[in-house]
Amino acid sequence: MGVDQSTPAPSRAGRNLPAAIAVGVGLGAVILGSLLWQKSLFILVVLTAVLAAVDELVRVFQNSGAKLSRIPLFAGTTAMLVAAYFGGPLALLIGLALTTLATIFWRMPGGSIGFVRDVTTNAFLLAYVPLLAGFAILLVQPEDDGPQRVVTFFLVVVASDVGGYVAGVLFGKHPMAPTISPKKSWEGFAGSTVACIGAGIASVVLLLDGHWWVGAIVGAVAVLTATVGDLAESMIKRDLGIKDMSNLLPGHGGVMDRLDSLLATAPAVWLVLHLLV
């Protein structure tokens, strides 16, 4: 995940490690607290993070020349996540369709020049952020074990990030994708895999009373999607010529720099748990 290297004392992997740990622990406490206190608060936490991420992407896309409006995007994002919680996957998809249509109508008065660029950028943003984030909302839906499913989801993504970071710093020698993310190594990916599968097994067995092999599948799938999400966001930033989406989170960068792996992993974890647990 991209991090702001302008802050002091960066580590070998490019992070201001104390700041990154402090922010990560703080975010984890907010998420866990919302789940334990009231599930509806978790929806508010997700919505706040997703709206911040949408705002970051609107800003960087506008800087690249696209014309986007926050009003339909913010309204549609809110509607999609609320619909996901109360109506499930179908409601989430209907919300995506209606919001996409709304952004097309909203753009029409601006004329035909750049129309295709602008509406496709809107559609990409909606599919990339609120649609994928909607699956995190779907994870918390089940009355009996919704919060535990969310904790499982976050644990495997955090394990992938931490395992990859530690293994990469200690043993990283062979670049995985040097033209996309120079610091990502195959040794780091191996560390992510071991940590992610271990976290998946422990979470599914202890939190969801499921079979160990289901946890292994969750971990194996999560390490792949988390890596793809990380690389995909790196490609977006390289294409736009930026280092981080913002400097909102010390040691991490912007909100999107923290959400990249989570967004890509949410649908995969939801599907595996939905089918096997």
Q: Any overview of this molecule?
A:
The structure is a single chain. With 277 residues, the chain is an all-alpha fold. Helices cover 75% and strands 3% of the residues. The chain has eight helices and two strands; from the N terminus they run αααααββααα. A two-stranded antiparallel ribbon has the order 1-2. Helix 2 packs across helix 3 (70-107), helix 5 packs across helix 7 and helix 6 crosses helix 7. The longest helix is centred in the first third of the chain and has 38 residues, at 70-107. The chain starts with 16 loop residues before the first helix and ends with a helix. Mean pLDDT is 89; it is low at 1-13.
Helix content percent band: over 70%
**Widest sheet: strand ordering:** 1-2
**How many beta-strand runs?**
2
What separation lies between the terminal Cα atoms? 30 Å
Poorly predicted parts? 1-13
The overall pLDDT, averaged over residues, is 89
How many helices in DSSP terms?
Answer: 8
Strand content: under 5%
Order of helices and strands: HHHHHEEHHH
Tell me the overall shape: globular
Sketch the major β-sheet. Answer: 2 strands, antiparallel
Radius of gyration: 19 Å
SS class = mainly alpha
